[in-house]
Amino acid sequence: MAQYLRQRITASLPVIVGVSMLVFLMLHLVPGDPVMLLLGEHSAVDKTALERLRATLGLNDPLPVQYGRFVWRALHGDLGRSIRLNLPVTELVIQALKPTASLALAAMALAMAGGLLLGVVAAVHRGRLLDNLAMFFGLIGVSMPSFWLGFLLIFLFSVRLGWFPAIGQGGWNRLVLPALALSLAPLAVLARLVRSSMLEVYRQPYVTTARAKGLTERVVVYHHALRNALVPVVTLVGLEFGRLLAGAFVIETVFSRVGLGRLAITGILNKDFPVVQGVALLVAVIYAGINLLVDLSYAYLDPRVRYA
Amino acid sequence: MHISIRESATRNPSNVPAIRPGRDALRRLLRNTGATIGALLLLALVAVALLAPVLAHRDPVKINPPDGLKPPGKEFWFGTDQFGRDVYSRVIWGARLSLRVGVIAVLISVGGGVPLGLAAGYYGGWLDMAIMRLIDLMLAFPGILLALVIVTILGPGLSNVMLAVGIYGIPSYARVVRGSVLVVRGQPFVEAAQAVGCPTVRVVARHLLPNVVAPIIVLSSLNVAGAILTSAALSFLGLGAQPPTPEWGALLNAGRDWVRDAWWLTTFPGLAIMLTVLAINMLGDGLRDVLDPQLRD
Amino acid sequence: MSGHVRLAALGLVIFALALSTGTSVLAQGPSPQTGGTLVYGIRQEPSTTDPHGSAAAVAQRVLASMYDSLVFMTPRGQILPWLAESWEVTPDAKIYTFKLRRDVKFHDGTRFNAAAVKFNLDRILDPATRSTSAISALGPYARTEVVDEFTARVVFKESYAPFLYAASTAFLGIVSPAAARRWGVDFVKHPTGSGPFKFESMVPADNITMVRNAEYRWPPKGFFKNTGPAYLDKVIVKTIPEASTRVATLQNGETNAIEPVPEKDVASLAHSKGYRVLKAPYPGGPRMVFLNTKKFPTDDLAVRRAILYAFNADQMVRTLLFSVHTAAKTPLTPGSVGYDKSLEGMYSYDPEKAKSLLTEAGWTPGADGIRTKGGRRLVMEQHIIANVGQEGPSEFLQGQLRDVGIQADIKSLARGAWYEGINRGDHNLVPLFYIYGDPDLMRGLYHSARIPFNWSHVSDPTLDRDLEEAYRSADINKRIPIYRRVQRRVMELALLLPLYNEFNLVGIRAEVRGMLFDPTAYPLFYDVWIEKK
């Protein structure tokens, strides 16, 4: 097992490095000068001041030099300072990580609960009304634009009913509305996957055997079928969770939450290289970690899978 | 779905002959209610898109401020926006644009992802490794950010959105196709066919198609919807379709400050997107049920 | 202080403002109560807590609370003593000698004195401070001399009449030298000034929290009601980018003041029980669209003039902006020094005239309604920044121009791409606005030396000459007639399309009292108090 882990970790390193290089290159392709963007379009511009600032930030150096500098510092734990805010990137990223992770976890928990429920119901009642209803409900979630849903939730539950706060992070009550808004899309995808996965499993010999043994349908479903059906589901959960980490900026904006998505978007739009690279690096690392966890979970879920 | 023990014991997936989508499949499809409804709905949507000049009786672009922000009524069926434009006409014209975004984006994803997956799965070796690493790279990159960066580099507008969303979808197809190729290649009959002198390509292709079509269809159906929604997200940042283009995502974004006070600005484009997604998914589910040999009774 | 320079300083910026609502210093009513927290929701985050490093005007709200300046300018343009008790300016406006207050302490307990002033002004020049706006505000700064512990002499390389105005802005706010030295580049995490509020904590993109400075006893003389520590216990400035969410927080109590209130919500909020909307006009330029004189087809004067005649500003203000702002007709806002009322009638809404101007210039209507001349279509580009609220007026303009046969495509870009584009002059039309207290603003916009920031890329010897002459003069009475000439010429050349004169719109819960505005229409928290029921 330890060897497997080591292998995986070494294998993911090139991916992480690759991501950071890709991000670096792409960011340089984006039009805009981060120093000019610092100013805002209204201020009088002092050309010499600009040039000086650009030089101080090392923005005039050739790209490989700039990238090399970034890598060298990163290895020492220094991700540089945000060009726009002049604050250490490490701090910014860590500050954004906690609310993002809470939101992603909460959303995925809701999505899993709902998706499992809907998917199992649909699979068990395949072809009948309940199946269609369950899938239909799931589809609604996938097709609603998140900001629309977000506004509606705020208006209904925060302004009208006053049950939950509309903005901010910290505390479970601030998680409810944004997590709800975020969970509907993965919920739908999960529901479908659980359904089709379970249908797959149903045809397997061991399910028939279990039935033949006289086990109740419930045990058959939950204990045997579901567990094995979970393998592709877990893969998807991992994928979706990863997506939520840096892709939730719409919800983060609507609910005014601090988050990696907003941090990344603002960074991209302001060509704040250090910030974007910091976020990309963190997300790549977390992703690799999630993939590893997912693969390890296969061993638990499917007895046929073993990592020597 | 119960199968007798005897059947399950003797049934071997690789024994199932390759499907040739034909009349048999079509008939089965029609029997599936979900798929039929989906197909009809989709046909209706396509018809609306094609018949836009006829169905939309007002100019979707000309502004008319005195008529601004009128709620849905006899005169303006879906109400008007801040500039006095008829929301109904705009949504009708938007059908073309949004459907186009979805379809072209998915075509780009399929066009890029399928060959990659085929190459990786079929040739294996270092090509496989290289492609898979590239895929991992793209997947490790938060998707919407990739789309954003592409649009920021290329400039705003619908064409670039299609390109960006298309590129964003490539890794999933590559992975899926590669997986299917690997499954088929691993079957004993491939070796057997090779031993007999049958070109591997033909064997693989014959058995690949049914295995790969289903996942591609499923993926595509969700992705067309996803493309439309991603375009809406890019519009949220103002980088999607440029005004006054009535693409549904752009319409949604234009109404975003008005969700409470002029609900019709977001509701109708939102419903349009939902219907489109629903239709495509129902059809996709039906197709998958029909074409996937393993789900046949 | 010599006679006419004082007059100049006084008259340098005179705003004849009509603050439509908002309490005045002389308001009667209940007396202020101490205590309470102001939670102030804004659209954009203040990018820094360092006044010298900041360029974003939005940071003013925080900076004005934590830092004091040498002088204070009232919305009516009067310069009041603040950290400087009195001052003398040489007739050539090259040397300013300030006599400073002796009782001022920074938040870290250290004393404010002339050495601090010197440190502050020199700090702005230090590359490590990453100053951009502050350096511009300093102008032709040479050095500061410490005459004695509480007398500082600021020397300029050339005549710099606007210095008192500049010194009153938050960009030249005074930081604690001890803290700046101690924290260096991390000063932004430990901002230390002498203002009525002290920094407590900050979460980037979320909030900046400040608490009352219990030692505060040195507000500007004669403007605020209060003369001691602030009434509020705490001020939290929260970033809430989404307009609907911002309004929602005011209604559910998560904030008790927000800025800006979307135009569409102003009427309903103002008429709701328990809420008020405060309005303060932004000085300087109105929201305007610059027309590029060097790019086809806006290089044609007839086309530019047609644009001005084709645009119905009044209708836009009524329908899009719900009459919250006012239609603009000239290069300056009505409250600004040098505003020329006679120019208002120069271009009235007259689409027929626009059409005939175009036809006369050889632009004939095409089959699709868009005019052509010599095989080229009358197509132009509006470059706007994505998602900052410029879409509305741009689409409106697009629609109106279409009616007279002009196709004005909209390119909505991320800020970086937008800025690059307009710097290169890729645009035909670009909407901008400038908040500034002096008509010298126009030199920055219309003088040929300022291209490309002279967004219309105009190079007109008459304009250049007039703008330079006005800049050199320290006498406001000589400058105003020149600026009138400048504005007339700018409008004759149709260098810009004025859109609307904008007000800062602050929505508050009725229990929030005492909010005043500075000359640039930013809110001041010092006198704010919360009325408890």
Walkthrough of the structure:
- Chain A is an all-alpha fold and 308 residues long.
- Chain A has 13 helices and no strands.
- Chain A has helices spanning 2-29, 34-39, 47-56, 63-75, 89-124, 129-143, 146-160, 176-202, 205-212, 217-247, 249-254, 260-269, 273-301.
- The mean pLDDT of chain A is 82.
- Chain B is mainly α.
- Chain B has helices spanning 5-10, 23-31, 33-50, 52-55, 87-123, 125-140, 143-154, 158-185, 188-196, 200-236, 248-254, 264-291.
- Chain C has 533 residues and is an alpha+beta fold.
- Helix content of chain C is 28%, strand content 23%.
- Chain C is built from 16 helices and 26 strands.
- In chain C, the strands form 8 sheets. Chain C has a 7-stranded mixed beta sheet, sandwiched between helices. A 4-stranded antiparallel beta sheet of chain C has the order 4-5-7-6, with helices on one face. A 4-stranded antiparallel beta sheet of chain C has the order 14-21-13-20.
- In chain C, strand 8 and strand 9 (207-212) form a beta hairpin.
- In chain C, helix 9 packs antiparallel against helix 11 (351-360) and helix 15 (461-472) runs antiparallel to helix 16.
- Chains A and B meet through helix 1, helix 6, helix 7, helix 8 and helix 9 of A and helix 1, helix 6, helix 7, helix 10 and helix 12 of B.
Strand content of chain A: under 5%
The helicity of chain C comes to 25-40%
Q: Roughly what is the average pLDDT of chain A, rounded to an integer?
A: 82
The largest inter-chain interface, given as chain pair and residues per side, is: A-B, 58 and 45 residues
- The arrangement of helices and strands of chain A along the chain is HHHHHHHHHHHHH
Count the DSSP helices of chain C: 16
Main sheet properties of chain C: 7 strands, mixed
Low-confidence stretches of chain A: none
